[in-house]
Write a structure and sequence with these properties.
It is a single chain. Helices cover 55% and strands 12% of the residues. The chain has 150 residues and is α+β, with helices and mostly antiparallel strands. It has one domain (12-146). It has a three-stranded antiparallel beta sheet, with no helix packed on it. α1 (23-49) packs antiparallel against α2, α1 (23-49) crosses α4 and α4 packs antiparallel against α5 (131-139). The protein is flat and about 50 Å long.
């Protein structure tokens, strides 16, 4: 009797977005709250990021900046791996660069480049037409700051 071999199938990546509030609610949020609250949170996140202890708080704030600005939830990516009759779902993030490289980047470039990037992104997001570009830039702020991949 021969054994049936179960081979691992290639992983599938599924990207899905969450539904946020109605568009009109998001517009009102942006006009009355989002623009100034985002500015305050960016300042707090940047100051926290200058300390080693505050880096987790800074990343937590930076990863929610687009949602804070417009109440639009972030898109999530899920990897589905099927092997040996079982299915695993993985929500892990991107593979990170070596810690030493990230530390050197932060000390030499990241702290000031992130400040410039953050200010430009915030100013662009204050214009109605620039909101998509501003959010895209704000979503990449952790990578500019410490080469952290989302």
């Amino acid at each position: 009797m021969s054994e049936i071999s179960h081979q691992e199938r290639p992983a599938r990546t599924v990207t899905h977005g969450k539904r946020g509030p109605h568009f009109l609610v998001r517009v009102l949020w942006y006009i009355f709250i989002g623009w100034w609250l985002t500015g305050i949170s960016l300042a707090v996140g940047y100051l926290a990021g200058l300390t080693v202890i505050g880096l987790p708080l800074a990343f937590w704030i930076f990863n929610r900046t687009g949602t804070l600005l417009t109440l639009r939830p972030r898109t999530q990516t899920t990897t589905v791996v099927e092997a040996n009759g079982t299915t695993r779902l993985s929500h892990k993030g991107a593979e990170q660069r070596p810690l030493l490289l990230r530390a050197i980047w932060f000390v030499l470039v990241g702290w000031w480049a992130a400040l410039v990037w953050m200010i430009v992104a915030y100013l662009i997001s204050l214009t109605i037409i620039g909101i998509p570009v501003g959010i895209m830039m704000l979503n990449r702020l952790p990578e500019v700051f410490t080469l952290h991949r989302n």
